[in-house]
Amino acid sequence: MKVVMKFGGVCTSSGANILRIVDIVREHVKRGDKVVLVTSAMAGVTDGLLSLIDNALAGELDGIEKSIAMMRDRHVQACSEAIEDDELRHETIRDIEGLTQELHFTLRIISYLKEASPRTRDRVLAFGEKMATRIVWRALMSEGINAEYLTGGQAGIITDDNFGRANPIMSLCEERLKKNLVPLLERGIVPVVTGFIGQTVEGVETTLGRGGSDYSATIIGAALEFDEVWVWKDVEGIMTADPKIVPNAKPVPKISYEEATELAYFGAKVLHPLALKPLIEKHIPLRVKNFFNPENPGTIVHHEASNDGIVKAISMIPRVAIITVSGAELYEAPLVITKVFKALYDVGANAIMVSQSSSQTNISIVVPEEKAPEILKGLKEVLPKNCDVAWEGDVCVIAVVGSGMRGRPGVAAKVFSAVAEKGVNVRMIAQGASELNISLVVKREDAIKAVRALHDAFVGD
Ligand code: ASP
Ligand code: MG
């Protein structure tokens, strides 16, 4: 079997966990499987790097030094626990020291210039994956598994220059990933690739957006036409709801690409929203597996929509705002709509939901709450004077997802009666033409009640 395995931040977080990675890989290598590893930064490190950029911009050099020292110690500690071979351990510790020095240097430049462009930010964010991946690589070597370290860019993940959220250029990725990784695999070497990182055609480092290591793994899986991509997490799989909200939530054994994409889009944090894209065309399945319970099958995401149950899962986006534009004359409506979406585009925001009243003079959009002030400002500048712009915060989007809803009457009625029975008022609703999900907006104080009611009504025990 040929499999790309992605190990997330929890898996790389400590020496003990890195040794678990080694155990898993050893099993597969022994069986003769061809494995490519993709690894994330230790949990919390990417957030830490983001704060360091803020500190540098604010000129807080003392704070930076302390944080970098802590980051270095955490990685050195993991080296000491996970790499038994003296020489390999020392080499890795030297690497970590070199990388943290380079990080320090970059942050000093940011603090002198008081500027961090998206390109510079990517350079800083990439340090987390580089440090963690080196430890995993040498831990494998130390246990006698032949492995090779590559950054995403060195492996062949070529992207555009949309720094912070770069897009892979799949034709180039395919060509280069094959050229760089296949010869290693043929020699029995396990490539260990930094997740999250790509590079432009000119060789400038980029990142694929937060949570982007999933995406790195699926880009590699698709390019090499592997049998499966496995994403190792600290959960049982894709769950019927967030277990922190719904204690009796359970893993979904099988789910289609479409359903899983919908869930990722509507706030389920288990996969990067774009991660499935590379796999769909090639029908390569993705498995979400529990790192702490590797025997369990987890969730398989594939092209078939299994019809067990009408609804697969309920997800929620906690912090959104509704912006409503009203008062336009009927003849102005198309122009107003164009301007509304342009205002979103200008601030890089996405319309999570859109609803338009039949008179066409009233349009409501749901946007991430943190983007609302900027969007409102933009709208006030561009809309005709007779238009009214109102907004409502403290609301959440809840999505009920499942392909079994398609062509089945009564599902919406059941959704509304389930929440109405709990006294929850629905502020806005939308259903995609694909009938894959029904999404609703409720007040924040009602959100947990509503998710639980929907889970009880559709998934149960
Ligand atoms: N380390 C990156 C992040 O925290 C990428 C990832 O974890 O997938 O967003
Ligand atoms: Mg992650």
SSE inventory with pairings:
Layout lengths: L1 E6 L7 H16 L3 E6 L5 H13 L3 H22 L3 H28 L4 H25 L4 E4 L1 H4 L14 H17 L3 E5 L2 E3 L5 E3 L5 H11 L4 E6 L20 E3 H9 L11 H4 L5 E5 L8 E4 L10 E14 L6 H14 L6 E4 L5 E7 L3 H11 L5 E14 L9 H11 L4 E6 L5 E7 L3 H12 L3
Helix pairs in contact: 1-3, 1-5, 2-3, 2-4, 2-5, 3-4, 3-5, 4-5, 7-8, 11-12, 13-14
The structure holds aspartic acid (ASP) and magnesium ion (MG).
Please describe what this structure looks like.
With 461 residues, the chain is an alpha/beta fold. The protein has two domains: 2-234, Carbamate kinase (3-Layer(aba) Sandwich); 313-458, 2-Layer Sandwich (VC0802-like), CATH 3.30.2130. It is 43% helix and 21% strand. The chain has helices at 15-30, 45-57, 61-82, 86-113, 118-142, 152-155, 170-186, 213-223, 257-265, 277-280, 333-346, 372-382, 411-421, 447-458, and strands at 2-7, 34-39, 147-150, 190-194, 197-199, 205-207, 228-233, 254-256, 286-290, 299-302, 313-326, 353-356, 362-368, 388-401, 426-431, 437-443. Strands 3-4-2-1-7-9-10-8 form an eight-stranded mixed beta sheet, with helices on both faces. Strand 12 (353-356) and strand 13 form a beta hairpin. Helix 1 (15-30) packs across helix 3, helix 2 packs antiparallel against helix 3 (61-82) and helix 7 (170-186) packs across helix 8 (213-223). The longest helix has 28 residues, at 86-113. It is globular. It binds aspartic acid and magnesium ion.
